Amino acid sequence: MEREAMMTKLLELLPEDQRPAMRQKIEEALAALPHGQIDHEATVASFLNDLGALAQWRGADFIYSRGIAETLRVGEDIFELAYAMKRAMG
C-alpha cells in the first residue's frame, strides 16, 4: 500500500477536526526516521502499519505493549503517536 493511502487510512480513524494536527505529527515522525537506508519507503510503510495497529489496541493491551517496546523493536516515538491517536479517537 502506498504511503498516502496508508496515511489516509490512519487519519480516517480520527474525528475530522483532529486529522490535520495528527497528520502533522505523523509527518514529523516520518521525517525523523533514518534516511539513506536501502528501502526507506519500506521503513515508512512499516512505521505507518505499526502505528495503525497500536492505535487500535485496547487500553490494557496498549499499555502492556508499551512496556515491551524494545522486544517489539519499535521506538518510543511510535507509542507517543499511537497514544495521541487513541486520545483523539475518544
Task: Describe it.
There is one protein chain. With 90 residues, the chain is mostly helical. It has six helices and no strands. Helix 2 packs antiparallel against helix 6. It is globular and about 35 Å long. The N and C termini lie far apart (27 Å). The model has no long low-confidence stretch (mean pLDDT 83).
Q: Which labels suit this protein?
A:
90 residues; mainly alpha; 0% strand; globular
Question: In a few lines, what is going on in this structure?
Answer:
The chain is mainly α. It contains six helices and no strands.
List the helices and strands and how they pair.
Blueprint: H1 3-11, H2 19-31, H3 40-56, H4 59-67, H5 69-72, H6 76-89
Helix pairs in contact: 1-3, 2-6, 3-6
By secondary-structure content and strand pairing, the structural class works out as: mainly alpha
**Percentage of residues in strands:** under 5%
Using the CA coordinates, give the radius of gyration.
Answer: 13 Å
Q: What pattern of helices and strands is seen along the backbone?
A: HHHHHH
Shape: globular
Total number of helices: 6
Helix content: over 70%
Task: Give the averaged pLDDT, no decimals.
Answer: 83
Low-confidence stretches: none
Cα(first) to Cα(last) distance is 27 Å
Main sheet specs = none
Q: Can you count the beta strands?
A: 0
